[in-house]
Amino acid sequence: MNRFFLSIVLVGSSLIFGVFVALPRFQEFSAVSKELSVKQAELESEDRYFAHLKQVQDRINAEELVAKIDAAIPNDPQLPALHDFLQSTAAGSGLSLRSIAASQSASGQGARLQRVTTSLQLGGSYEGLKVFLSSLLRASRMTNVESINFSSPQGAGFVFNIRTVSYSY
Amino acid sequence: MVEIIPKQKLEYPLWTQALFFGSMLFLLVVIGGFFLTLSLQGRAQKALESIQGVLAQGKTPEEARLEQSIFRYRDKFNDFASLATERNDVRPVFEFLEAYTHPRVVFTTLNLEPTVRALKLVGATQDFRTLQEQMAIFQNREELGGLAISNIVLGEKGQVVFQLEIALKP
User: Fold this and answer.
1) Cβ distance A26 to B35 under 8 Å?
2) Mutation target vs B (from A29, A50, A127, A151; most B CBs, 10 A cutoff)
3) pTM as predicted
4) Is residue B9 part of a domain?
5) Which residue from A43, A135, B100, B163 puts its CA 20 to 30 A from B153's CA?
């Protein structure tokens, strides 16, 4: 066969093979390759995210302030410890604990923060009450005063009805 | 028949030869490219399946724990900041009463609700004039957001008994 015509046949065959066989296959490869890049980026992003979380966790573990926050809002209500804290704070202020009752409730719907409301009845002096309030403010466990109620002493001393709220997680 | 005079060998022009070899090369490139694409696609497909498998597994228990712990601390820090901001010190209320209570007025009952900044007092004094002076003292104080007097009655020993409702400023 004449080489000229053979060349034309070869070029024609190449074009037909290229357009109808090789090109679709290349387009498929291109799509797979693109999807692979996207998934790789997704995986890398996930890895970076967890590496960042690990760094944050390490910083949290090393931070002294976090320990203080954990003491202020412990991870469980620790009711006996709370009772003991209030009793010893009262005693340290010169007040006697006459009664104590605590109840727990969530601070809001879906909230992790739990409120522990404590009703206290304390006996003692007005000065003792002020010391007690100062001690509550300085204490490591966050305790807020919700209400204070008292009347003039009829007998030996004042009787203070105090409602406090502490928190847990 | 024996050819005595040999035929001259047919010579292709150079451009025809270049076209022929060029077209051969083109065909080889196309076929080679096709198989290269097949091979690369196979590898890419395997890698994709492997990554999809890893992604489909989701978080490991350790990662889930880590994430939960971080989110817990994030919420805790936010709650702590908010509680610390809202934290009230009730001692200034007592300091205020000690400083600005009229010498001839006695408060017999105190009911303080710091969260709503409300203070209710029941007091007694000797006469209405003293009570008016006490009101004047309180009314001039910037610490108070509101002052209301009610239930003014005469007590058993001729004392003036009254009730005060005070709104405290933040």
Assistant:
1) no
2) A29
3) 0.73
4) no
5) B100
| End-to-end CA gap in chain B | 129
Q: B55 φ, ψ to 5°?
A: -65, -35
Q: Is the ipTM beyond the 0.90 threshold?
A: no
- Per the CB < 8 A criterion, the answer to whether B112 and B88 are in contact is no
Alpha-carbon distance B22 to nearest alpha carbon in chain A (angstroms):
8
Tokens 């807020």 identify what position?
A144
Q: Which pLDDT score is estimated for B156?
A: 81
Q: Please name the amino acid found at residue A130.
A: K
- At the second CATH level, the architecture of A74-168 is 2-Layer Sandwich (3.30)
Whole-number Å distance between alpha carbons of B36 and B34: 5
Distance from CA of B4 to the nearest CA of A (A): 26
Q: Count CA atoms within 13 Å of residue A70 on its CB side.
A: 11
Q: How many domains does chain B have?
A: 2
